């Protein structure tokens, strides 16, 4: 259903763009087959002489080594968590797990001991890959304090021993067949949405959501994306990571967000796209290096993770002389629901959340009756389609509360939709998930 004057607040995104039967490992293999020599991943380090680079061919080869190493310890279908700051090895674990048919459980390295134990038990992770040291805390030490409370956890792999771990797999290990509807990742909802729940997400949902995001950003070969987003968040390990692979462009990955480093990397790598939360974007604009760096290659930016005030959108666009694309998403929706496009009007880019993604259905419902409200009327934002999670890990009651019998995912966010399908949030606090 598309919006027309006087219509209900109910819109289906572009039906001409197909949902593809893809997997995370499959899209990497496709990129390596057709663009093996193209730069895929750049390690954005404070010391430019120490940054490593991988082509798509090299990224696939290293990811297959990681997959075989994982299969030496885990079986396809098992769940393995990863807890550490941004690093190329983090991405090798992501692609390796996908190629091995293992569901990856990304965890925030800043978690305290009780939370870490709860999420590992809730996800039933049989293993965890960890990095030592993160902003004054040590995830390895945190795990040691709760190790006895994790009966299902049998393997702990240290990223500090990556070379030995990657070499531990059998070169003759045959990688399994992975299907588009197999579980790919389990992402936990933020604490702002109540107790964290693990959304089980399929390969098809993640790969297509990232591909549509990339296409709507008008990204493709020759682009360079400088990514400050944490890899444990879906913007980092799904949208940018899987979007770059399917768009065949370079992904520049700094170890974390630092506005000065971001500006240097955008200049030195000739970044054409970058993004982050509103706080990240403003920190770069306010940094003393901003006016001295050559950012002339930037042609678009992305904002997500929270509702962005119109004044911030306009300030970013004015400072960069480039459009800002806004994404509204949910962990349970792989994650994209709506997005503004670079060719939307300045008013729509600043004041709306854009239109539904291709093949994504969105409607605004009366929270009391569940009925679709008229266009322009506030209600709960609901979404339905290929992108919706299979459910919350080991939590059928929460799953039934989130996804109704007709397949609609209830986001819990109050918003409205105009006759064209453009959405707005009426409760900004609900956007941060």
Description:
- With 433 residues, this protein is α/β, with parallel strands linked by helices.
- The protein contains 13 helices and 21 strands.
- Residues 1-5 have low confidence and may be disordered.
Termini separation comes to 27 Å
Identify the CATH architecture of the domain at 24-35 and 54-178.
Answer: 3-Layer(aba) Sandwich
* Oligomeric assembly: single chain
How much strand content do the residues show? 15-25%
- Low-confidence region ranges: 1-5
The class by helix and strand makeup works out as: alpha/beta
If you average the pLDDT, what whole number results?
94
In DSSP terms (H or I, runs of 4 or more residues), the helix count works out at 13
Radius of gyration, in Å, reads: 21 Å
Spatial sequence of strands, sheet with the most strands:
3-2-11-10-12-13-14-15-16
* Helical residue percent band: 25-40%
Biggest pleated-sheet summary: 9 strands, mixed
Global morphology: globular
In short:
This protein is of the alpha/beta class. It has helices at 24-34, 56-71, 88-100, 113-123, 139-146, 162-166, 203-216, 234-247, 259-268, 278-286, 310-320, 346-351, 396-402, and strands spanning 10-12, 39-43, 53-55, 79-83, 103-107, 127-130, 155-158, 183-188, 198-202, 224-226, 250-253, 273-276, 300-303, 324-329, 336-339, 355-356, 360-365, 379-385, 391-392, 409-417, 423-425. Mean pLDDT is 94; it is low at 1-5.
């Amino acid at each position: 259903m598309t919006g027309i004057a006087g219509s209900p607040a109910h819109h289906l995104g572009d039906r001409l763009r197909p949902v593809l039967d893809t997997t995370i490992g499959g899209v990497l293999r496709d990129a390596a087959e057709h663009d093996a020599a193209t730069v895929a991943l750049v390690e954005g380090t404070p010391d430019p002489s120490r940054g490593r680079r991988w082509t798509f061919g090299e990224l696939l080869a290293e990811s297959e080594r990681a997959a075989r190493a994982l299969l030496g310890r885990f079986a396809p279908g098992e769940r393995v968590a990863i807890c550490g700051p941004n690093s190329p090895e983090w991405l090798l674990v992501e692609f390796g797990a996908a190629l091995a048919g293992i569901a990856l459980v990304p965890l925030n390295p800043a978690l305290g001991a009780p939370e870490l134990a709860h999420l590992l038990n809730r996800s039933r992770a049989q293993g965890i890959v960890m990095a030592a040291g993160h902003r004054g805390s040590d995830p390895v030490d945190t795990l040691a304090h709760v190790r006895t409370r994790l009966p299902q956890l049998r393997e702990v792999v240290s990223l500090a021993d990556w070379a030995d771990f990657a070499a531990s797999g059998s070169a003759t290990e045959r990688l399994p067949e992975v299907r588009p509807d197999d579980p790919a990742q389990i992402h936990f909802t933020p604490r702002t949405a109540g107790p964290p729940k693990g959304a089980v997400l399929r390969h098809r949902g993640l790969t297509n959501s990232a591909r549509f995001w990339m296409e709507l950003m008008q990204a493709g070969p020759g682009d360079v994306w400088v990514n400050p987003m944490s890899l444990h968040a879906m913007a980092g390990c799904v949208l940018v990571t899987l979007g770059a692979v399917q768009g065949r462009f370079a992904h520049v990955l700094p170890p974390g967000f630092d506005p000065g480093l971001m500006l240097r990397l955008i200049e030195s790598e000739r970044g054409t796209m970058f993004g982050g939360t509103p706080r990240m974007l403003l920190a770069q604009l306010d940094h003393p290096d901003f006016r001295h760096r050559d950012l002339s290659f930037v042609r678009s930016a992305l904002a997500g993770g929270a509702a962005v005030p119109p004044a911030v959108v306009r300030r970013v666009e004015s400072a960069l002389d480039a459009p800002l694309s806004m994404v509204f998403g949910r962990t349970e929706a792989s994650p994209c629901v709506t997005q503004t496009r670079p060719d939307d009007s300045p008013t729509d880019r600043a004041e709306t959340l854009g239109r539904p993604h291709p093949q994504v259905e969105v409607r605004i419902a009366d929270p009391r009756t569940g009925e679709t409200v008229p266009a322009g009327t506030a209600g709960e934002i609901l979404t339905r389609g290929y992108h919706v999670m299979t459910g919350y890990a080991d939590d059928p009651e929460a799953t039934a509360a989130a996804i109704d019998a007709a397949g609609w995912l209830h986001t819990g966010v109050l918003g409205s939709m105009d006759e064209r399908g453009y959405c707005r949030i009426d409760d900004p606090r609900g956007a941060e998930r």
